[in-house]
Amino acid sequence: MSLLGAIRNVNGTVSCTVGWMKDSACANSLRQGGDYGSLGWRCVCMAFKGLCLLSVSSGVLCGDAASDLSEPVEQLTGEHTGQLIDDLAVESAGTGESAETAELCPMRKLQQICAPATPSDSTVVMDCSLDFKQQDCMAVGARTNEITRKLLFHGSSASGITANFNGAHINAGMGQINHRRQDIIEIASTVDQHGRWQTPVNVNIRNALVTGSIRIFGMGRNGESPYVRQSSQQSGHIIRAQAVAPSQIHLTNLHVVGTGRNPVYFSPGVTDSSLTESVITGVSQRVGVYLDAETRRIQVRDNIFDVKTSDGSYWGFYDRGWPQVAVDGSAHNTISGNVFKRVSNGAIFLYRNCGEGGTIRYTTPSHNLITNNRFELAAGLDSMSAVSPIVFIGSRNYGLVENWMPGSHCNDDQQSVAYLGSAKSNADHASFNRVSDNVFVTMDQSRSRIVDNGPYIQVGNTRLDQFNVIEKNRLVGRNGF
After folding, report:
1. Is the predicted pLDDT of residue 73 greater than 70, yes or no?
2. Please, are residues 462 and 398 in contact by the beta-carbon 8 Å criterion?
3. Which is more confident, 210 or 415?
4. For residue 420, what are the domain limits?
5. Which of 198, 341, 213 lies closest to 275, judged by CA?
6. What pLDDT is recorded for position 34?
7. Per the domain annotation, does 64 fall within a domain?
8. Who is most buried in 7, 104, 251, 359, counting CB within 10 A?
9. DSSP per-residue string spanning 349-397
């Protein structure tokens, strides 16, 4: 059972015990490779019913947890250990590692879903499955298979839903009631009347044209949300954020047309989810797909990206463009088999925000796999000397200077009670990532060559962004040679 699974099977207060065990044993309990397991240090292990929830050695978190912090933590005293145990008391209900498939929606519910949105009635709560192959909007009297209501997959009642739209249009485009009113599809955790988190698990959304945006969130819509900020300033934030966020959310064969907001957003704490076999186009003021702080094990596979993103220029000054995919304080993700058709502002950037909204970000953009992708360079980007980074490992790496620059938010997360993560270091610490077997396609007739070193793939600061593997990436001409 995984660390997250251990937390999710707890109803009520977690009662942990503290004991000593070897680092390697603790790492094995976490079912990780144990980056530090061979060093033989001893750890304090916090366990629930024999399951290792967290382990702390003399200054280093054991196993996988160590890779999520920019720097080693201080050795925990008994007082601090007790506080961390208290913070593990995440009370949740209606969650689990899997969920039974929800029943198909009855006709009355289908009518509600397909009814046009109005100013006073613009949303619908999704608590049953859909299969538009069997029964769609036209079957209940609609002229077309168009949905204009905001679809809310909220709480545990959304667990197990499969929504197969069979090509239907979920429309928040220009002229629609829900145009630019946040996201047209939400998969979100909620808090019930008893103060317990209700978390959606195993939600599948397939085969739709979506004009607007999709957001998956738990504690908050983004890293600046009040609950996320408050939690980040206490011990145990990573565990807490992931325990209450949606998991196993799978978006498949969608065409998402952005209208300004990030078309697809995985908010803090979302785990074990995917975006596959989809097309992401349209316009975004930021990026195409965003993996926010403390997210983990997100699969971005076999998609086509062609989003018009911002070039990052302000008053004539250029900072950095916004890429197609942003990995912001997110780890253990796979980005593979995708085609990137618009890369002038970058394709994949790995970084960690510093201080924005006062939230401490703990996880570093590490242990990510970027492989077998195709990056198509537009005319004017053929010259090696003219290309901005397309894959950028450690794209920000702010330092102490940013703490005091006018308008900077890098020091907004500095807290005396939690001097860790981005509160301690503004740098990205993007490490243990692998970028391999990708192809960069130019418009000229150049022969194939390896481009592991050069402006197509860059590491921001090799002193801080360490142990990254970059190999077997090729530049080819338009004919593929």
Report:
1. no
2. no
3. 210
4. 213-476
5. 213
6. 31
7. yes
8. 359
9. EEE---SGGGPPP---S-S-EEES-EEEPPTT--STTTPPPSEEESS--
